[in-house]
Write a structure and sequence with these properties.
By secondary structure, the chain is mainly α. The protein contains 2 helices and no strands. The chain binds zinc ion.
């Protein structure tokens, strides 16, 4: 599937966890700037 350059630039860059710098999925945006793993670590 082809993506127009205009559509490409509308796409936001992948979010990265502020703790481990791992790229996060869009679905984790409700967790702020931390990935699932780091969130779990904080809950301990
Ligand atoms: Zn993390």
């Amino acid at each position: 599937m082809l993506i127009k350059s205009t559509e490409f630039f509308k796409t936001l860059p992948p979010k990265k966890c502020v703790e481990c710098k791992k790229t996060m999925d869009e679905q984790h945006e409700c967790y702020g700037n931390h990935c699932n793993e780091c969130m779990s670590n904080q809950l301990k």
